[in-house]
Write a structure and sequence with these properties.
Blueprint (H helix, E strand, L loop, with lengths): L12 H14 L8 E2 L9 E2 L5 H15 L1
Antiparallel strand pairs: 1-2
Length: 68
C-alpha cells in the first residue's frame, strides 16, 4: 500500500497509479489518461491527463470533503 508520507525516492510508481485509480474509482471518478509518465522514469511522475470540467468539479468535491 502507498501512503501519503512515502519517500519520493522509494515510491513504486505503478503501485501509486493503481492505488490512485482504485481510490478515484471508489469515488466514481475516472481519469482516462491516468498512468506512469514513461518519458521521465527517474522523476517517477504520474500523468493525470485531461478531464472534462464536470469530472474536475467532482474531483475537487471529493478532495474538499476529505480535507474537512
Amino acid at each position: 500500500m502507498v501512503t501519503a508520507q512515502q519517500d519520493p525516492d522509494t515510491t513504486d510508481v505503478t503501485a501509486a497509479v493503481q492505488t490512485l485509480r482504485k481510490a478515484l474509482t471508489a469515488a466514481g471518478i475516472v481519469l482516462p489518461s491516468l498512468g506512469a509518465d514513461a518519458a521521465s522514469p527517474s522523476l517517477k511522475l504520474i500523468t493525470l491527463g485531461r478531464v472534462r470540467a464536470d469530472v474536475a468539479l467532482r474531483l475537487a468535491d471529493v478532495i474538499q470533503r476529505g480535507c474537512a
